[in-house]
Amino acid sequence: MTTTARGLSAKAPAGTSRPVRDGRAVCTEEDGSPVLVTRVGLRIPGGLTYESWERAGQRLADVVDSSAWCLGDWLIHGEREYGDRYRRAVEAVGLEYQTLRNYAWVARRFTMDRRRPALSFQHHAEVAGQLDDEQDYWLSRAEESRWSRNKLRSHVKAKRRGGGESERQVSLPRIEAEQARLDRWRAAADRAACSLESWIIASLDTAAGIVLEEGRAGAVAV
């Protein structure tokens, strides 16, 4: 029997002699049986009601959404305060650098007071490449109409096809790439929880920032 930080107890899974690490409850049944989050997955009690199962899913989604913002903010702080040392921290904690860069790019595009708690990180990522007033417009529409991320994406794409003046965007030159490379880009965009278009913009911004920083460093060195 192991005891969690919240004083909840749970039995080790059958078929293993190793103790399970303590978990954190995301939902508790009326009889006190918790749904626990552990390092290796969920521990779900028998007889869980549908309502509790749904509630646990919502709380897990909130945690995932919050962690994307928090990881982005964490990397921004590290880059600003600790110079090149922040890369060592990224490696030490085992996080994927490019995914963190994508999170940080979205986090930079939205100051804390402009983030909408009622919308997901993915909603914000969908419009992160636009100007501030356009971001606010689309996020307000999504919040008022309760659009999903995919619904927001479809409306933004429809607006672009219509060529409205408010978009104030220009088209990039046509890019041709092998199917395998395109599939890899799409997989990276999915991992970063954003559209392929947003991921490409984020990657280009990241690459531009690195090159420009190196250029400034070289100029200082000379």
Report on this model:
By secondary structure, the protein is mainly α. The chain is built from 8 helices and 5 strands; from the N terminus they run E-E-E-E-E-H-H-H-H-H-H-H-H. The protein has helices at residues 50-82, 85-92, 97-109, 121-127, 132-145, 149-162, 179-191, 196-221, and strands spanning 2-3, 9-10, 24-28, 34-38, 41-43. The strands form 2 sheets. The protein has a 3-stranded antiparallel sheet, with helices on one face. Strands 1-2 form a two-stranded antiparallel sheet. Helix 3 (97-109) packs across helix 8 (196-221), helix 5 crosses helix 6 and helix 7 packs across helix 8. The termini are far apart. The model is unreliable at 1-21 (pLDDT under 50).
The sequence of SSEs as H and E is: EEEEEHHHHHHHH
Shape: globular
Subunit arrangement of the protein: single chain
Class from helix and strand fractions = mainly alpha
* Unreliably modeled segments: 1-21
The helix tally amounts to 8
> pLDDT average, as an integer?
76
List keywords for this structure.
222 residues; mainly alpha; three-stranded antiparallel β-sheet; two-stranded antiparallel sheet; 8 helices; 58% helix
